[in-house]
Design goal:
By secondary structure, this protein is an all-alpha fold. It has a domain of about 300 residues: Sodium:dicarboxylate symporter (Proton glutamate symport protein). It has a two-stranded antiparallel ribbon. The longest helix is centred in the N-terminal third of the chain and has 34 residues. The two termini are about 15 Å apart.
Length: about 450
């Protein structure tokens, strides 16, 4: 009996976690120089390599997917007016959903107060910050250096950098860098709009060519996704094996706060926007996106998940290429609901632990900074972590460096969770905009 792919991925996730826990338990009872421990390390290295190949394969088709889908989709619009209408709706939804996510994070972190014990700053967590900084600083040295290099930038600098990314001096160089997708999107949009200005006999031929190329790229995506269960197993195995259990226990309340906020946004706020803004049954949309959400969780990368997001939106949700080719790539670049929510909670958590009381005005500043940085640093690796360091420094919260390292050490599971929220937010924008354009969604079919 053939199982739907989302079930095989769920089974892979469970088996991977069980395998990792078993290997971790066995390694604790082995001598450092034993052959058994060498074998376990070899298994982890192979798993890490297979997972890396999967993400590289997905990233390999991002550029051809963006160019072909954007050009093929937007070239069917009726000139600049149709594109402007589509753009206003898309950006409007992104601003609304991200703002709601940040306000939710701010409300929950103030209500639960994960950095406090009996109303006072938690000395246990503060000690964990210091000890973790001493033991894991070298492990995350590249990310720490990246954050330090960007921590003195202001909100205005981030906005300027955003516009610079929109107009890269070399489009080939931008295409070669997955972190500069925004420039590639802008160029593709301009190319598509230019095609609409050509005579029909020329414009239609070019548009048909890009449509055929896009169909071919989707087929490559399907080939890659056939390996998803095995590759998801390989991706999760090292993550569970290497996670630091003791620090997770100390930061349990913080974890609960972040995960609760992400869950509320994923299962309540975004579905409510779907229902009230477009009359869409959220359960139907979850069903259409389930394989994509599991892949986003496993890879912890909105960009790497982009090919599958496009496929699910078009094939399962029934959104046209015209809408999906613009909303989804743009969302993967600038729409970061889960990231913005996480930034807000992380900064407020550190402030609570360090005994810094932020006024309502200061908290509003954190909200605005989270909104700006979730977009402004989207092209930088580990963008949310860089943004956290930036906001910590701009808020004059002491101990930013040690707290930052501790958050790095436990970031991976939270990164996986917020990526799933980011991707689901992109998909919600696509279907809401498509519905407003009068499209018929969710064809009668079984989703894979």
């Amino acid at each position: 009996m053939k199982h739907a792919q989302h079930w095989t991925i769920i089974i892979a996730l469970i088996l991977s976690a069980v395998t990792a826990i078993t290997l971790k338990t066995l390694s604790g009872n082995l001598e450092p120089d034993s052959s058994g421990l060498t074998f376990i390390y070899g298994v982890i290295d192979i798993a890490r390599f297979v997972g890396e190949l999967f993400i590289r394969a997905l990233k390999m088709i991002i550029v051809p997917l963006i160019v072909t889908s954007v050009v093929a989709g937007i070239s069917t619009l009726r000139g600049v007016d149709g594109f402007a209408r589509l753009g206003m709706k898309t950006v409007g939804f992104y601003i609304l959903s991200t703002t709601l996510a940040i306000l939710l994070g701010l409300s929950l972190v103030n209500l639960i107060a994960p950095g406090l014990e009996n109303g006072q700053p938690s000395e246990l967590i503060k000690e964990a910050f210091t000890s973790e900084a001493a033991t894991t600083g070298d492990k995350f040295s590249e990310k720490i250096a990246l954050a330090e290099a960007n921590s003195n930038r202001s909100g205005a600098d981030l906005i300027k950098n955003l516009f610079r990314q929109m107009f890269p001096p070399n489009i080939v160089e931008a295409a070669a860098n997955n972190g500069q997708m925004l420039g590639l999107i802008v160029f593709s949009v301009l190319l598509a709009l230019a095609i609409t200005k050509l005579p029909d006999n020329k414009g239609s031929h070019i548009s048909d060519t890009f449509t055929a190329l896009n169909d071919a790229v989707i087929i490559i995506t399907q080939w890659i996704m056939k390996t998803a269960p095995l590759c998801v197993y390989a991706l999760i195995l090292p993550v569970v094996y290497e996670s630091g259990g003791e620090l997770f226990l100390k930061l349990g309340k913080y974890f609960f706060t972040v995960l609760a906020a992400l869950a509320i946004h994923l299962f309540i706020i975004l579905p409510a926007l779907l229902y009230f803004m477009a009359g869409i049954n959220p359960l139907k949309h979850f069903r259409a996106m389930r394989t994509t959400l599991l892949t986003a969780f496993s890879t912890a990368s909105s960009s790497a998940t982009l090919p599958l997001t496009m496929r699910s939106i078009q094939e399962n949700a029934g959104v046209s290429k015209k809408v999906s080719s613009f909303t989804v790539p743009l969302g993967a670049t600038v729409n970061m609901d889960g990231t913005a929510l996480y930034e807000c909670i992380a900064v407020m958590f550190v402030a609570q632990v360090m005994g810094v009381e932020l006024s309502m005005a200061a908290q509003l500043g954190v909200v605005v900074a989270a909104l700006l940085t979730s977009v402004g640093v989207a092209g930088i690796p580990s963008a949310s972590l860089v943004a956290i360091m930036l906001i910590l420094k701009s808020s004059n919260i002491p101990g930013a460096e040690t707290a930052f390292v501790a958050l790095l050490a436990v970031d991976r599971p939270l990164d996986m969770s917020r990526t799933a929220v980011n991707v689901f937010g992109d998909s919600c924008a696509a279907v809401v905009v498509a519905k407003s354009e009068g499209e018929s969604l969710y064809p009668s079919k079984s989703y894979s």
